[in-house]
Amino acid sequence: MHDSQEPVTTSRFDAVWPKLAWLVYALTIPVRAWYVFVWHDPQKFIYSDMATYVSQAVLFTDPTYTQGIADTIYPPGTGYLFGFLFRLGGDSLWPVVLSQFVGSCVIPILVYAIAARLFSRRTALAALVLASLYFHFLAYAGFFLSETVYTVLVLLAFWFIVMAVQATDPLRQVLCSLLVGWTVGSAAAVKSGILLPFFLLALGIASIFVIRRRILAFVSLAAIAAGALALVLAPLAMRATKLCDGQFCLVSTNAEMNFLMGHSGRSLRFVWNDAKRNYRFEFAHPASVQKGYDEPRTLAFGPYDRKENLAAAWAWIGDHPWEAFAQSVDHVYDYFTGTVPWPSSHGPERVAMTFFERLYAFFWLVPAAAMVLRLIPRWLRRERGYAGDFLAVMPVAGMTVVSFLTIAEPRYRVPFDGFTCILAARFYTTWWSRDVEPGRSILPADGVTDPVPVAAETRDALTGTAEPAPAGEATPAPGAVAPSDRG
Questions:
Q1: Is residue 278 part of a domain?
Q2: Are 224 and 174 within 8 A, CB to CB?
Q3: Distance (Å, rounded) from C-alpha 217 to C-alpha 227?
Q4: Maximum Cα–Cα distance across the chain
Q5: Sign of torsion over alpha carbons 377, 380, 386, 389
């Protein structure tokens, strides 16, 4: 750290970096428009899961349609959202296409907003660039899939969480906590897999509050968020339970189905035959296709029969315990970089997706992992200033657990790659320094600032000034930067 009387000059890079970062983002907007509206119009790729969501959009908004138990296989959120936009456009899918484009443009902004609340502006701008250049955020906008809206909701929920724990105004705390519950619940309506990652995130936040001896503050915020979440999940559970003939179901029935597909040896194509309801359902997991699995599996029950799916999975695990463990580890590998994300793995953008998946491994995943390894000793020592990094890791860790327990492919990873962008940005903006620059205070309202001061170079980059601090004036701590510096 520089002495308070030492003159400091702002580097040319720090002066140009903000303009360059936002220019990169701005240049990607016409590329996104061309990709979504012209070259990869989602209306040209309606098959498999995309056909299911389009069918739901039409049927769920048809007052004459009666939903059945088969409508619980997929969470209903995407179908209802697409259906609302479909009817809004006069029975046209054009508004849905537009929403996919808008979502792909919003995602980098949300990544920047989160990073700006947790770290320096330099790191936030680096995260903006990484998110803007991340091809997967664009590729999934070219399909009628849930990934784009789900990514927006995941990042929005995390941003509201950070806003809630950093807020000093009680009204803002309550409002942000309510929005946390609403966004997490809305995301669960799209993909119920969000619940475990954000539960781990809640435990991470709780540990920070406990260390700071503010347990009551956490309980109050968590209770408000949980209440709002319950209000969103209640109608979803009532719908799913009714369709499942009174057997309780929170959102959808596909968790047990995924558990079976992930623990069934080299099975490729699963065929569920429900003779009682005269329903047949076939599914081949994309990762299994790419790994050359070739064994068929026919089941004498429906994909929505959760007890039967669980029983079949546990029976196989009991007969093949070590193979089951090895397959679970393989799922984690598939989640990060083992295979090429579907459906791009079989589309006209296959070459581009394969290429960018390799770039992801080298320029996103490896730097993010290196940053985590660098921070682990600081987390173990409970050093202040690194809680933001810890929170950014929690959702990724949660999805890793989900992958281990069920089944995975890179498609499931994409909605959480905004956090990978942030961690990689932390690496790129601190790798040359022996000491990792601390982030902003997570709990500024506790009256205690982080003991590790911000370096003079960082302070000047944030404030845009190059004047030395006055004699006797302390350099501001990460949690005490001016509001205008939060980005």
A1: yes
A2: yes
A3: 16
A4: 83
A5: positive
**Residue 283 domain flag:** yes
Token pair belonging to 224:
């408000």
> Among 236, 240, 208, which residue's Cα sits nearest to residue 221?
208
DSSP string, 159-170: HHHHHHHH--SH
CA–CA distance, 303 with 291 (Å, rounded to integer): 23
CA atoms of 154 and 111, how far apart (whole Å): 11
Distance, in Å, from the CA atom of 240 to the CA atom of 205, rounded to the nearest integer, reads 31
Continuous segment of H or E residues that includes residue 269: strand 267-274
pTM of the model: 0.88
Q: Which amino acid is at 151?
A: T
Q: Which two tokens stand for residue 5?
A: 């009387």
Per-residue pLDDT, 10:
54
Asked whether residue 291 is domain-assigned, the answer is yes
In a domain, 268, yes or no: yes
Query: Which DSSP helix (H) or strand (E) runs through 267?
Result: strand 267-274
Q: How many CB atoms lie within 10 A of CB 195?
A: 20
How many degrees, rounded to 5, is the angle at CA 430 between CA 427 and CA 431?
70
Any alpha helices (H) in 246-295, and if so which ranges?
254-262, 286-290
Of 243, 236, 200, 205, give the one whose Cα is nearest residue 405. 200
What does pLDDT average to in each consecutive run of 10 residues of the chain (487 residues)?
41 84 98 97 96 96 96 97 96 97 98 96 96 97 98 98 94 96 98 94 94 92 97 98 95 95 92 96 90 91 96 97 95 91 90 94 96 94 91 96 92 96 96 81 54 37 37 38 36
* Count of domains observed in the chain: 1
Q: How far apart are CA 359 and CA 319, in angstroms?
A: 39
Please give the C-alpha separations between residue 400 and each of 142, 334, 349, in angstroms, as whole numbers.
Answer: 26, 10, 27
In contact, 97 and 419? CB cutoff 8 Å: no
Residue 308: domain span: 254-336
Q: Is 116 left (phi over 0), alpha (psi -120 to 50) or beta?
A: alpha
- How far, in Å, CA of 337 to CA of 101, rounded? 25
